[in-house]
Specification:
69% of the residues lie in helices and 0% in strands. It is an all-alpha fold and 210 residues long. It has a single domain (16-200), classed as Tetracycline Repressor, domain 2 (Orthogonal Bundle). It is elongated. The chain starts with 15 loop residues before the first helix and ends in a 10-residue tail after the last helix.
Length: 210
């Protein structure tokens, strides 16, 4: 397991049983945070949801921040898998189709991980490790490289950095919106991403220099 919040978990799961326990604790944390919100979620409630003694929770995660960073890290890995799947589809997609698909899978991811949006209220110190965030950027860049436009990899990485920030804005506005407004938010961000990609990646095969 990764270290969390600059602290090593008090017990690193070496065996399958320990790994299963950590997975159960993280799942419980996601359920409680999704229901109660980050601030109201307690270690006791998470342990109870997992059916585990509170001491067992603290053996793996010394505090709520450590547990939260672990959950964010798992979510990051899950999203990395989403982008990996999208990369395989990208070669058959136009820029507009890729933009629409990227927005779609991102919204699907948020809806499949109910604690994802409440975690925006968590401290900045609980962010997933920098190395994972860089992997997400690189994976998204590979989606662009695999598309029908085939931008140079260095340029794709620059674009991916901006796109991830755009998706972060989508997530935040999505969290603040009601069900009806969310559809409009998704539609507007799809237009915005399509326009950005079209402006930076010419459709006629010539590559624009940033």
């Amino acid at each position: 397991m990764d270290s969390y919040v600059d602290e090593e978990p008090r017990r690193i799961p070496q065996q399958e049983r320990g790994e299963r326990r950590v997975a159960q604790l993280l799942e419980a944390a996601g359920t409680v945070i999704a229901s109660a919100g980050y601030e109201a979620a307690t270690m006791s409630a998470i342990a109870e949801r997992a059916g585990a003694p509170i001491g067992s929770l603290y053996q793996f995660f010394p505090n709520k921040k450590a547990l939260t960073q672990a959950l964010r890290t798992e979510y990051g890995k899950d999203y990395e898998a989403v982008l990996e799947a999208l990369e395989k589809q990208a070669k058959s997609l136009s820029l507009q189709q890729l933009a629409k698909r990227l927005i779609h899978v991102s919204v699907q991811f948020v809806e499949a991980h109910p604690a994802f949006l409440p975690l925006y209220d968590a401290p900045h110190s609980t962010r997933s490790p920098l190395t994972l965030r860089q992997r997400l950027r690189d994976r998204l860049a590979e989606c662009l490289v695999a598309s029908q436009i085939h931008p140079p990899r260095a340029k794709a990485k620059r674009l991916a950095t901006i796109i991830l920030q755009l998706l972060k804005g989508l997530n935040q506005l999505y969290a603040e919106s009601g069900p009806v407004d969310r559809k409009q938010v998704v539609a507007e961000y799809t237009v915005a991403l399509s326009a950005y990609l079209a402006a930076r990646l010419q459709q006629n095969g010539h590559r624009e220099q940033l």
